[in-house]
Specification:
By secondary structure, the protein is of the alpha+beta class. It has one domain: Jelly Rolls. The strands form two sheets. The chain has a six-stranded antiparallel β-sheet with strand order 1-9-6-11-4-3. The chain has a five-stranded antiparallel β-sheet with strand order 2-5-10-7-8, with no helix packed on it. The mean pLDDT is 87.
Length: 186
């Protein structure tokens, strides 16, 4: 589900500047000239949105709307991180295990950047049968603009093809059901 938030937040330039000056981590999921604060080991988390209360509130309102629209229990916000990609960089195909819903807020989506490419989860079950019907493709590339938010089920595999711009900047997040998280800690 796509939300257009450009008019809902006033300081996109300040947010971009803050992210450009933020700490980075090493990881293998982003290839090329890119920076992130994502922790790939899944035991350490960034919790970027904890420092961005107004943005966190705005994103959680969208998670709640998504949940109501899809008639599912609204999960809580969990880990969050930024990613800044430059020309030629890409993100490998992956999914967000241990999460309910995931989201990507496009803080800066210059011309030549991409949104997310979502893979079709039915492809492995087609056993070589292909159809020219829309939605049957291997992947759907969702194009975005600055201020757009994509929320999607965390099991949905996605990737970012190589981009042709600098400073494609996103804030990404995962969610969880509190009872599941408590049981994991037992």
């Amino acid at each position: 589900m796509k939300f257009t938030l450009w008019d809902e937040y006033e300081d996109w330039d300040g947010l971009l500047a803050l992210l450009m000056d933020s700490e980075t981590t090493e990881n293998d999921i982003v290839e090329g000239d890119a920076r992130t604060c994502f922790h790939e080991d899944w035991t350490t988390k960034s919790y970027l949105l904890d420092r961005l209360e107004e943005v966190n509130t705005l994103l959680y309102a969208c998670v709640s709307t998504y949940s109501r629209y899809n008639n599912v229990v609204s999960p809580e916000m969990d880990d969050s991180w930024y990613t800044i990609m430059n020309k030629g960089s890409k993100v490998q195909r992956h999914r967000h295990e241990g999460s309910v819903l995931s989201g990507t807020l496009f803080v800066n989506a210059p011309e030549g950047s991409h949104g997310l490419a979502f893979t079709n989860p039915t492809i492995p079950h087609k056993m070589g049968i292909r159809s020219p019907t829309p939605g049957q493709d291997y992947a759907h590339l969702e194009e975005v603009q600055s201020g757009d938010l994509l929320i999607y089920p965390s099991w949905m595999e996605h990737f970012v093809p190589a981009i042709e711009c600098d400073n494609r900047t996103t804030i990404n997040f995962n969610t969880y059901y509190p009872t599941y998280k408590m049981k994991q800690g037992d």
